Amino acid sequence: MSSLQNALRLLAQFSADRTELRVTDLAEVLSLPKSSVSRLLKELTEAGLVEREAGGRAFRIGPELFRLGHLYRVRVPVQERVDEVCQELLKRYPATAYLAVLRGFELVVLRRHEGWHPVRYIMEPGDTIPAFATAVGRALLARLPMETLEEIVPDHLTLDYRDVDASRQEMLDELVAIRERGCALMDDRKLRVAAIGVAVSSGTGRDLGFALSFATEAIATADRIVLEEDLMEAAWEIGRLSGDPYWQHRTVRQG
Predict the structure, then answer these.
(1) Angstrom distances, CA of residue 228 to CA of 42, 154, 238, 247
(2) By CB neighbour count within 10 A (0-12 exposed, 13-18 middle, 19+ buried), where does 3 fall?
(3) Which residues contact 146 (CB under 8 A, 6 or more apart)?
(4) Domains along the chain?
(5) Fewer CB within 10 Å of terminal CB in the chain, N or C?
(6) Digit-coded pLDDT (tens) for 117-151
(7) CB atoms near residue 49 (< 10 Å)
């Protein structure tokens, strides 16, 4: 087996559960002499692919891999990043995830990712609904300039089958609050469905929204706060990589 193959095998041993490894550990799992592992680690360290723990004997992933990973993430389309984020969140929360865009004052559903908990109200890809009636729609509307909102928001906003009844000024005030907060929250008492939504720049001139929708009783209030933070942290990371000015100038919870 070539030195390159062994180096790749060595790097593959690092994971979220094994962030630091010693020569002895690597020699055992790779079935290589310690001298060979030490030589590989020396070469990988010089290349910046691994680094030695300060004052210790263990090694961890180096800054060059972070740089290469960043380049990969930058080239991945925003929609794919959002898909990945939603699928990860659905492993932890009993919800359904939606990706959507605005078309005028309407919301158009692009994708739906099913979670492991049934949601009573389901929107299908291609469905349209007044944007103000959903959390993801409000998150998208909140990114529009105020002069645009003043032109398109009607005097009264209501929808028979949704728990929505607001005046024009109430909706404008709500959208300003969403813009400041970073996400939109909705709890529909008619449908007994709640949702939390955020929006990011897609890099194509059109903003992309994504939200997690869940049965009202499925997620407790304290867990909703954590979900809200998780969604905004995901939007911050995606926005930072895609050059979204809104998220680049925000600070969110880290780690």
Answers:
(1) 43, 29, 15, 15
(2) exposed
(3) 172, 176
(4) 3-72 (1.10.10.10), 76-248 (3.30.450.40)
(5) C
(6) 777 677 888 899 999 999 999 999 999 999 999 99
(7) 19
